[in-house]
Design brief:
The chain has 369 residues and is of the alpha/beta class. It is built from 8 helices and 19 strands. The strands form 4 sheets. It has a 6-stranded antiparallel beta sheet, with helices on one face. Strands 10-9-8-7-11-12 form a 6-stranded parallel beta sheet, with helices on both faces. The protein starts with 19 loop residues before the first strand and ends with a strand.
Length: 369
């Protein structure tokens, strides 16, 4: 009944690498003044995915290939097509390009759906999902909400959704309709930074006092039947995590999906680079039934070296957050310059991210997936 951070999607072993799709844009929906939803036609061989997963969009902008991952807001149980929502990011190359240029009829290359911010849905489930979302962090939540309400008649969803102002609320009308349709099973609580004079809801920062008020408004089903999910800006999620700890919410009941927008081009961790060996290392990677011996030079990531040597591994953000390049460490030593994308449980179980991974021994052996 709890969320799974370890669900694997079976790969097509005949593909010899990541599966790519060329998807036609069916329509573009203007959600707000700075956010759109791109609806893709399902190809003849339908793409399967799980609620909460993301698509990696691959575009050529100014002659250079760029990749960005965007969460699916569509539900595999409810929606015929695939859809992602994209909010403009200040100086964001891809988000601004898509908001300005994307139109019906365009064809965009995408990597197969990935991500572990997922759960299995069953008519026998009876659980309470409490979702904390900020801005475009609503995107994977919409997929999860639609799937939960359509597949689990005895489950309840409470959404706490923070935005700058009313006009910036993505899916505002759709959420209102869903709340009416699933009366008593979906509770939406909006929080605005800049609330109008006639605003009847909550405003300001999500602090301990406000959290207590919110918890008084939503049903208490007990820890054993409640899961807490969050997706939004890192600052918001860290604040929510701290508040949930103060409320003595068990950490195993709390899951989050980290954003990658805004830190794609972050600077190198120069201090941590000093920890690397000053010599080249050999890394053995198992992927899609094949073994690849990768030479990793000092200072280079494992993923960077693999791509340079022609090994087509799955990746997206290259910032250690999207987990598209997640591997299981079989043996050997390595360090990651960024661990935010993995949960404590995943790290304990030996999962690593090779986009921010650097080998520290010659016996490092990894399995992709």
């Amino acid at each position: 009944m709890a969320f799974s951070l370890f669900g694997k999607k079976k790969k097509d072993k005949s593909s010899g690498g990541p599966r790519y799709h060329n998807l036609e844009v069916k329509k573009v929906i203007n959600e707000t003044s700075d956010a759109i939803t791109i609806v893709f036609k399902q190809p003849e061989e339908k793409i399967s995915y799980k609620s909460g997963q993301f698509l990696t969009l691959i575009l050529t902008i100014d002659g250079k290939e760029v990749r960005r991952c965007y969460s699916l807001c569509s539900s595999p149980y409810v929606d015929e097509d695939l859809a992602v929502s994209i909010k403009r990011v200040d100086k964001g190359l891809v988000s601004n390009y898509l908001n300005d240029q994307c139109k019906a009829g365009d064809v965009i290359k995408v990597l197969e759906p990935m991500g572990t911010f997922t759960t299995e849905f069953s008519p026998s489930n009876k659980r309470h999902l409490i979702l904390f979302s900020g801005g475009s962090g609503i995107t994977p939540m919409m997929s999860i909400i639609k799937s939960t309400l359509s597949q689990e008649a005895d489950s309840l969803v409470s959404l706490i959704y923070a935005n700058r102002n009313i006009d910036s609320i993505i899916f505002h009308d759709e959420l209102e309709k869903m709340q009416d349709h699933y009366e008593g099973r979906l509770h939406v609580i909006h929080i605005l930074d800049d609330a109008p004079m006639n605003w009847q809801g909550y405003s300001g920062l999500l602090n301990q006092e406000l959290l207590k008020k919110l918890f008084e408004r939503i049903p208490n089903w007990g820890y054993d039947k409640t899961t807490y999910l969050m997706c939004g800006p890192e600052g918001m999620m860290k604040n929510v995590e701290s508040l949930l700890k103060l409320e003595n919410i068990p950490s195993e009941n709390v899951f989050k999906e980290s954003f990658v927008q805004g830190i794609i081009d972050k600077g190198e961790d120069k201090d941590s680079k000093k920890k690397d060996d000053k010599k080249q290392h050999e890394v053995l990677i198992h992927y899609d039934g094949e073994d690849y011996q990768i030479n990793v030079k000092p200072g280079n990531s494992i993923l960077e070296s693999a791509l340079d040597q022609g090994v087509d591994l799955p990746y997206s953000c290259q910032s250690g957050l999207c987990t598209a390049c997640r591997c299981k460490k079989i043996k050997g030593e390595m360090r990651m310059s960024e661990e935010e994308g993995l949960s404590e449980a995943e790290i304990k179980d030996g999962y690593v991210l090779i986009c921010v991974g650097h080998p520290l021994s010659d016996d490092l052996e990894l399995e992709v997936g």
